[in-house]
Amino acid sequence: MLTVAQISDVHICRGHEAARRDRAEARLRQVLRAIMALRPRPAAIVATGDLTEAGDLESYAAFRAILTEETDLPVYPGVGNHDLRANFIQAFDWPADRLAEGFVQYGVDLPEGLRLVMCDSLDEGEAGGGFCKTRAGWLRGVLEGGPADPVLVAIHHPPVVSGIRWMDPSPDAPWIGRLAGALQGHDQVQGLICGHLHRPLVSRLAGVTVAVAMATDIQLTLDLTEVDMRRPDGRELLVEEPPGYALHMWAGGRLTTHFCVAGRYRPAVTFTRPF
């Protein structure tokens, strides 16, 4: 059995007010400590973007410092719409062999024969996702030209509709079509894991299960009613629910995803006698 933890939407923000900065960093530490307490310990951590709030080098340095202090697991990061590619590359001293024509796209072999393929949906200056022909062609080439080993694809933006209207992409957005086309017909793809929504959900794209992790930062309020973002109506958009992460389990040729809340809670039932 292999487990891989996923964190997303960390939003480290060294250039912002102290309360917001401290909250983001404390919540990240809470999640990392929860991951490190898991048994069995995960083989790796996948970080699906929005590692910082503004893509600045100071915030990337703070993110890396927290990782160093809290975990010794390998961490495989990607970029989200709040990141900046050039600063990400500089801050992580990113190797050229983990770039695809300048995009943060790469593959790594995990234990138990599972391969992680990280994709880049950052369209700088835009909140929504992007996946151009270059990126889609690279993914298609990786899936067609690589071994038939099972693959877990990671990307920041979910290519699905959640029902939370102000966050949702258009279902016929060209970037979603290109991503779906790259995935179509590749049975080795066991799942597509994403972030961005600050809320867990499961959907499907091109026959592939899409699992979206909650944020380590504050969570998105579940509100499925119509909204006009040009007319403020006082509704709650985000809420200070506990931070969380996803745990992806690969066992018996099947991928299972657990959505986990980080923190210490009082046991409700303990195993003290046989059932």
Mind explaining what this structure looks like?
The protein is globular, with a radius of gyration of 18 Å. The two termini are 26 Å apart. The strands form three sheets. A six-stranded mixed beta sheet has the order 4-5-6-7-9-8, covered by helices on one side. A five-stranded mixed beta sheet has the order 3-2-1-12-13, with no helix packed on it. A two-stranded antiparallel sheet has the order 10-11. Helix 4 packs parallel to helix 5 (174-183). The chain has helices at 18-36, 57-70, 85-91, 133-145, 174-183, and strands spanning 2-7, 44-48, 75-78, 106-109, 115-118, 151-154, 189-194, 201-205, 208-212, 219-220, 238-239, 244-251, 254-261. It has a single domain, classed as Purple Acid Phosphatase, chain A, domain 2 (4-Layer Sandwich). It is an alpha/beta fold and 275 residues long. Helices cover 23% and strands 23% of the residues. Helix 2 (57-70) links the parallel strand 2 and strand 3.
